User: What shape does this take?
Amino acid sequence: MKVRIHRGAVQIGGTCIEIEAGGQRIALDVGLPLDAAEDTVSLLPAVPGFRDPDDSLLAVVISHPHQDHYGLARHLRPDLPIMIGEAADRILKAAACFIRLGVSFQNVIPLRDRQVVEIGPFRVQPLLVDHSAYDAYSLLVEADGKRLFYTGDFRVHGRKAALVERLIEHPPAGVDVLLMEGSSIGRLGEDDSFPSEDDLEHEFVEVMQSTKGTVLVYASGQNIDRVVTMFRACRKTGRQLVIDLYTAEVLRATGNDRIPQGWWNGVRVFLPHRQRVWVKRNELFDLVPRYRANCIYPEELASAASMTTILFRPSMCEDLERAGCLAGGSVVYSMWDGYLRDERSEPFLEWLNRHGLSMAKVHTSGHASIRDLKRLADAVRPRRLVPVHSFGPDRYSDYFDNVDIRGDGEWWEV
Assistant: This one.
């Protein structure tokens, strides 16, 4: 078995890993780099079979539905088999109805927790993990008598932490190479930890209790753990959670009836102006009726401000201004705060100042702390550990044994 990291050996985001055995190949992830100015076909790694037919490329495996792991997949030839979690595939299809550059795969091989998929000389076993993306997997790949374990992105402080604890307690045996993400290396101290979703829930409750008007939470509608955290905090403070149609469809796509849905008591569905236009333009009329009983209209938002929390994004600013529901309100920023330093966030920050809205930052990482990275590595005990998805591969030897640093574009034997 041979491996080539096309992107990710020395950076976070844009991950793409090619694996070859017996003259046949698979690829793990085909992500959009975080620093990419735009999504262009020129960023697609030079993997034979990505764009033109090549029978030796059997499939692309998507570990989870985050842009930095699947974002260039829309440039792949449409008949190429895609292995992806069933719920992850449904989420991307639901999102593609609302996103101009969304992706909807045509030839899907579904991944299910711990169920082995055999394709050519490869045995691929997905292992469900805790991450800020729903339906995220680590991947155990076997071929030529060798075993490679790719962690994908994971954490142990979300609402599905028990999945990783199970993996640590019962790790795959006989792993020759552990391809381990290290997003926190170089950015977090060895003994530091991240807040849990339960910690965030307490912080949300405090903000909701201290805010007289509407609470706007700037978060991703695809961060399902965060939506659950928001809903739980709303229940504790007597507030209703208002989501847009896009988020309602993403939640429905999970297929999980334990996750808040747009038809639940305590959840209302709002259709911002841009989404109304989008629905009409793309004739998505069949999406609206399932939420009709729980719809909330702009003229209702002002009178319900003291009992409302809205999952918010800057494209909704004008809707909320027209609704007159901002007096006495506050904003919770619940994403990576690096985005706020981008010049594209300046109009949003100016909008906050113009309306006198205070902003609290309540967020946690989607990635494991160094302590938890070490726990997993110690449990797996690989023959070699290869850094990936990290800006600090040179720091790995400070924390792990048998580190083998490989460069982008380099073929190497497992």
Observations:
- The longest strand covers residues 122-129.
- The two ends are 6 Å apart (CA to CA).
